[in-house]
Amino acid sequence: MNCCHHYQFIPGNEQVFSADVTRIRYGCGVLEELGQEARALGIRQAAVYTDSRVASLPLFGQALDALRREGIEAVVYDEVRVEPTDLSFKNAAAFARSSAFDGFISIGGGSVIDTAKAANLYSTFPGEFMDYVNAPIGKGQAVPGALRPHLACPTTAGTGSESTGIAVFDLLEMKSKTGISSRAMLPDRGIVDPRWTESLPATVMAATGFDAISHALEALTAKPFTSRPRPDAISGRPMPQGANPFSDILCREALRQAGQYLVRAVNDAADHEARYAMMYSATLAGVGFGNAGCHLPHAMSYPVSGRVQDFFPDGYPGDEPICPHGMSVIVNAPAAYRFTGAGCPDRHIEGAQLLGADTHDAPPAEAGAVLAQHIEQMMRATAVPNGIGGVGFTEDAVDGLAKAATVQQRLLLVAPVPVEETDLKTLYREALSYW
Ligand SMILES: [Fe+2]
User: Residue 96: inside a domain, yes or no?
Assistant: First the structure.
């Protein structure tokens, strides 16, 4: 199922797609090479961003040793907030300004890597915080130039942040997530050591793994890049450029691996084969969606994680309610894919098939449902909450969530079908519970 017709040329429309890829080093033990990689980028004094959980792990000590063996001064900032906010980004940027750092190293999940990107940006090109935040929420201004080198070391198997130019955060006054997107924020190296996954709590493995799955599915089912008008200048080519032949390859393999290994990886921490495979799947999905874009499940997730009030999942800091990013994505995903299925039925069926569903004779009219049902099966097999009701939302919240999701235009515009506020109300209602 190759979907060749997906990229038909339309006169006046885009014919060019981009492949922006971080230089990735992947494999067990690659963390030992962190210092050599940093030195090769000219780093002598590094700001090292992490969170308190990761900072306590033996591998973190190994990473610092690897830096110091190469004579690099590593100054640790371990106060990164899980699910960062505009305030925590500003604090991280203040740390970056506190010394003459010539490079950034992030060791953690997506929250940590995104925080290091923001700290690099705001300490290099200070300005009003909202200047670089995606329009229409912020001003969406272009980053004026190159940032300092950034080596990203992901410790969870899901975010893909090491291979994207995106930093996502909760804008506190809006009670929703938004982001900053720029190719300038693409890390210079992704140092991906699958050994980190051995210590992940099951809930974290599930949330991050489903994030990776949805990255791949959303990129695969995004509007094709050929559906946009060709820009007059290269600066007019958006980073979320839509599905394209390059991202397709990555997303297909990411889904095949995740379909084979996610349930095993969540349910057995000792299953290193499965956990390592999920790290690879997440890396592929990260490059894939970084070169295509995400759409409806991510747009619906942001108000959910921004408004959660009484959910405290295992494996996360228990000091305040949290709906981890990947969890907020996947509790919305079945409703979202049932809706987007009509936009490109063959790709929804293909996604389900790659994840392991029996799609034999699946009719196109059922494409979204076939994919949604398979995701629901995987959610049940990994004890993920049953819809947004499972993380504490009720019918009363639906209108507010829908209104907040409509501002995520950067994401919604890449969806394969038009999405209006009335649709979002229906979708959140359907997402309250699935089984
Ligand atoms: Fe994500």
Answer: yes
Ligand 1 midpoint to CA 52 (Å): 22
Instruction: Write down the residue that tokens 């797609």 correspond to.
Output: 17
CB atoms within 10 A of CB 380: 13
What spacing in Å lies between the alpha carbon of 330 and ligand 1's midpoint? Answer: 10
- Final residue of a structural domain among 178, 197, 216: 197
Q: How far is the CA of 363 from the centre of ligand 1 (A)?
A: 29
**Which residues of the chain are modeled with pLDDT < 70?**
1-4
Residues 192 and 249 in one domain: no
Q: Cα(299) to centroid of ligand 1, in Å? A: 10
Interstrand relation of 189-192 and 150-154 (parallel, antiparallel or unpaired): parallel
Residue 378 alpha carbon to ligand 1 centre in Å: 18
Same domain, yes or no: 181 and 206: no
Distance CA(356)–CA(350), nearest Å, equals 10
Could you tell me if residue 9 is inside a domain?
Answer: no
Sequence-distant (6+) residues with CB within 8 A of 70 are: 35, 36, 38, 39
Give me ligand 1 centre to Cα 31, in Å.
24
Element housing 336 (H / E)? helix 333-340
Asked if residue 65 and residue 111 are part of one domain, the reply reads: yes
Q: Which domain holds residue 103?
A: 23-197
Residue 229 lies in a domain: yes
Q: Using the 3D structure, point to which of 197, 223, 257 is the last residue of a domain.
A: 197
Residue 115 and residue 35 share a domain? yes
**From the CA of 288, how far away is ligand 1's center (Å)?**
12
Give tens-digit pLDDT for 164-185.
999 999 998 887 788 999 989 9
The tokens for 267 are 């349910």
Q: How far apart are CA 350 and CA 241, in angstroms?
A: 21
14 part of a folded domain? no
CA of 87 to the centre of ligand 1 (A): 21
| Number of domains the chain is built from | 2
CA of 69 to the centre of ligand 1 (A): 34
Integer Cα distance of 171 and 280 in angstroms: 31
Q: Render pLDDT for 86-132 as a digit per residue (tens, 0 to 9).
A: 999 999 999 999 999 999 999 999 999 999 999 999 999 998 999 99
CATH number for the domain that contains residue 215: 1.20.1090.10
Measure 220 CA to ligand 1 centroid, in angstroms: 14
- 284 CA to centre of ligand 1 in angstroms: 13
C-alpha 210 – ligand 1 centre gap (Å): 9
The percent of residues in the chain predicted with pLDDT above 90, rounded, is 88
Domain CATH number, residue 95: 3.40.50.1970
